Each structure stands twice: as structure tokens, then as C-alpha cells.
Amino acid sequence: MPAGLPAHAQNLPSLGDTEREELSPTMERRLGEQIMRDIRRDRDYLDDEAVLEYLNNFGASLLSVAPEARGEAGYDFFFFAVRDSMLNAFALPGGFIGVHSGLVLAAQNESELASVVAHEIGHVSQRHIARMLGRQRQDALIPLAAMVLGALAASSSPDAAGALMMGGQGLALQRQLGFSRDAEREADRVGLEILRGAGYDTSGMISFFNRVQTASRGYSDTAPAYLRSHPLTTERMADIEARTRGQRYRQRADSLDFHLVRARLRVLQDLSTRGLTDAAEAFENQLQQKTRTQIASAKYGLAYIAMHRGAPDKARSLFQEAQAAAQGGATASQSVLLTSLGIEIRLAANQAQEALKEADAARAKFPLSRSIARQYADALIASGRLDDAVAYLRDQTQLYRSDPKLQNQLARAYAAQGKQALQHLALAEAYAINGSVPAAIEQLNIARRAPDASYYDQAVIDAREREFKKRFEEEMKEAKER
After folding, report:
1. Residue 419: which residues within 8 A CB-CB, separation 6 or more?
2. How many CB atoms lie within 10 A of CB 1?
3. 161-170 pLDDT, tens per residue?
4. Helix (DSSP H) and strand (DSSP E) numbers for the chain
5. Is residue 98 within a helix (H) or strand (E), and if so which, with residue range?
6. How far does the chain reach from its first CA to its final CA, in angstroms?
């Protein structure tokens, strides 16, 4: 193994002889899931329900016009954000697409954001990473993993990021970049088709990519190469312009949630005292634009800042002003982000009954919203309706078996009931979903020793322990074979 490669990059799944055949869809997904487990543990991964829901709904709307992009394996795409001021987005193996917070803030409209996300969908749909790995053999995993995992470190510590990526870049970088020029043009072609099908303005791709190119001139040469090397060559830009020439201009109104998620990301990008002050100043300046959408999103941002500063009354007042400004807008009544902030402020202010009432109404209005569903569960727990919370969360965990957050919420509800065995059983499931099998087994051991563990609980614990141990043994065996 090259020096500087992070330990978790050495635990990538075995791919077999990739020189003769490209990475299979199943193995590509496994690789993506393994990289995502490490990314989720990074402090700059934005694990924010409202942001995740917006991005995944947005991505799903693009995929709805190009279902073939999911490929033969029918990838369940996952879109996420990382805290980074660089204008960038990237695709991981198996349908995972990351967007930097700085890119969303720089997008002037939803068509521009759609142009970047559609481009990354193009990379996945054309299986560029699998094709690259098929040419470069197993050692291509090293620069891929090292660069991906060094991306988040770059924003907080360029030196640390350089150390993470040092071992990987030299192995196959030249071949990666040589391949990527063709891949970028192919992703552009697919992205433009998706933009047209979804009704977005295709000229947004040209305007935004030109802005990215201008901004990238100030980046350090040590910035993560894989995640920012979407080469904007003259030839490539000419190709995009040729493909969009003669296309009728389409003006598409932005959703209110697009402006609200930008306000939310502006706050989340820097939660330090200085960061919140700078964000508040930006929102105050935004209020001068005096359009309904700009006022609503600025007030939303100021309310979110007040909540983080521990001023619930001010947060509530600003939230109501945001609501008032949004009234009459085409999408105001359908804004999940605006609705969920009201519940969030209630929960932060320990107003459990009010939060539950608002969350229950929101759940009826937005039955498919995962963020509202979680807030409803939180409100049930906060208001002391623990039996209802457990029943609701048990149903949710059956519907969404791969969601560790639901298991963590269920563990909280059991803890509030004083049910220790069930609490640690739920925590074991959460750890297992996150890929931390040894930690899951340890939680099972704690559950087994709990004084309230029933005969049935012990049977469940034994069964899950056998499953987890078998899974761990298979992972260790696979690691030794590499």
C-alpha cells in the first residue's frame, strides 16, 4: 500500500480481475456504499434532513425523465451535500452524488443547479467509474478512494488532505484525466438531454460552467484532483454551445424551496460566531432586493440563525415574517422547508405540544416527507407520548429498513421508557446499517445483560448476533484475500 493512504481506503471490496472486465454494477454499488460510510462520518458531511430531502427530491425529478440512467442494476440514487466553499459536485460509484454547499450558493437559479446535477447523473448512467476501473485494474481504487476521502479534509485542513491523497494520485491520475475528457463530454450530452426533458433552461449549463471555470482559477493546486477535475476545455465548451444552439429559451420559475435551501446552507456552511454574523449580514443585504422570494428566504435564514443562537422568540417572530412574505407565492403553501423550520423552532424551544400539533398537520399535508416524519417522531417523544412514538417508529423502521436514523430515534424512545434491552437492540441495528458491525455486536452484548431483557428479546439478540458475526467473518475473509 502506498504511504499516506487512509486505513479505511484499504478495506475496499475485492473486485476480482478488473483488467479483463469492468466493475459489475453490484460491486460498483458496494464500493460507493463503503466510501459513503466514511464520508458520513466526516464532520463536513451535511447530515441535515431538510437539505437532504430537497436534494433528493430535486435529483429524483431529474431522474424521472431519464429512468434509464439508473442502469441495469436500478440504482437507488442518493444526493447529499458537503460543507465546502468550492464550486463543485461529484459522482461516486453506484449512484451517490455529492454537491458542495458553495456550489448551491453560487447557482443563480434552479436551472443552473440542475445542469450540474444532471451532468453528474450522466457520469453515473454512463458508468464512467466502472469503465475507468476496468482499464486500470485494482490499483485505480487507491487514487479514487484516497481522493474522495480527502475531499472533505481539504476544506478544514489542506495539509491533512494532501497527506490523505499523496499515495494515490501518482498511480493512475494521468490515465484518469485522459479518460475524463471524453467522459466529461459524454456526461454533458446526457445532462443536456435530462435538462431538456425536465423543462430546464439548457443555457444554464453554459453560464454556470463558465462561472465555475472563472472561480476555479483561484483554487490551490493541492485541491482534490478527482473531485474538481471536470476539465472545462475550449473544445468541451464549444461542444455544449453547439448542442444548445437554436434551442428555444425556457424560463422556468424557481421553487421557493430552492431559495430556502440556499439560505439554510449559507448558515450551515459556517456555524461559528463569526460565520453566523457574516450570514446574518448577507441576509440583511438580501432584504434590500424587496422581492417576495428574496425577503422570504432572507427572513428564513435570519430565523434559522436566531434558533442556533438560542433565541427562540426572535426565531419564531422572524419565521412568521418569512411565512407572511411567502404568502401568495406559487409554491409557498407546498414548501416543506418552510413548514419544517416552524416545527424545528418549536422543538428547540421545548414547546413540545405545539411542535406535535404542527408536525401532525404537516404530516397530513406532506405524507411523503421524510424530514417531517422524523420531526413528528421527535415531537411524540418530546411530548411524552412514548408508546405512540414507539409504535410509529417501529412501523417506519419496517418501511425504511436501511435508515439508521430511525433506529436511533427508536432507541431514544425506548430509553425514555426505561426499556434498556430494546434500546440497545435498536442501537445495534443502527450501527449495523452504518457498517459498524463490531459496534453492533457490542450493543447486542449490552442488550443481553440488560435486567429487563425478556426470553423473546434474548432470542432476537441471539439471532441477530449470529447474523452480524457471520457478516463480520465474511468481511474479514474478504479483506485477507486482497
Report:
1. 452
2. 9
3. 444 444 444 3
4. 22, 3
5. strand 96-100
6. 11
* Distance (Å, whole) CA 357 – CA 353: 6
C-alpha cell at 457: 428479546
Q: What percent of the chain is predicted at pLDDT more than 90? A: 53
Mention every residue, 6+ apart, whose C-beta is less than 8 A from residue 442.
none
The letter for the amino acid at 448 is R
Residue 398 confidence (pLDDT) above 90: yes
The three-state secondary structure class of 328 is coil
Q: Give 368-386 pLDDT, tens digit per residue.
A: 999 999 999 999 999 999 9
- Long-range (24+ apart) CB contacts under 8 A made by 193-198 are 193/66, 194/62, 194/65, 194/66, 194/69, 194/114, 194/118, 194/121, 194/122, 195/111, 195/114, 195/115, 195/118, 196/247, 197/65, 197/66, 198/61, 198/62, 198/64, 198/65, 198/114, 198/118
pTM for the full predicted model: 0.85
In the block, cell 450558493 appears at: 105
Contact residues for 251 (Cβ-Cβ < 8 A; gap 6+): 201
